[in-house]
Amino acid sequence: MFRPRLESSLSMSALPNTTPALHAPQALHAPQEIAAAVGLTPAVTSRLLAEMRVGDVGRVASVSVDPADAGRLKALGVCAGRTLRVVSAGNPLIVQVLNSRVGLAAAIAERVTLNSCC
């Protein structure tokens, strides 16, 4: 078999790079990222927190309660942009927010709107 001989004065960096660079693809975590990667616009669905089932996950879109209740919910972590996971349905509805679980009355859960995510 014929093997070309390289002169000692040539280094590998002096040779032209004829192979394309291979890069590991970035990990895509959310459905929105996957849809964007393939050029699709993901459909965002909104639901009330009270309508969600155990295990459902959503991102808070809005909280339509009076200011005093809004302040309490925000202190507990239930505010716009926060991701919630339903742990137990019913009254009270229990959600996981960050590393805490919060129980919400059904009347309050009916006033929290979530967008689909994750």
Q: Going by CATH, what is the homologous superfamily of the domain at 46-116?
A: Ferrous iron transport protein A (FeoA)
- Largest sheet geometry: 6 strands, antiparallel
What is the N-to-C order of secondary-structure elements (H for helix, E for strand)?
Answer: HEEHEEEHE
The CA-CA distance between the termini, in Å, is 56 Å
Average pLDDT taken over every residue: 80
Sheet with most strands: strand arrangement:
1-6-2-3-4-5
Topology-level CATH name of the domain at 46-116: SH3 type barrels
The CATH class of the domain at 46-116 is Mainly Beta
Helix content: 10-25%
Indicate the low-confidence ranges by residue numbers: none
GO molecular function, one term: transition metal ion binding
Keywords: Iron
InterPro entries: Fe-transptr_FeoA-like, FeoA_core_dom, Transcriptional_repressor_C
Domain Ferrous iron transporter FeoA-like: 47-116
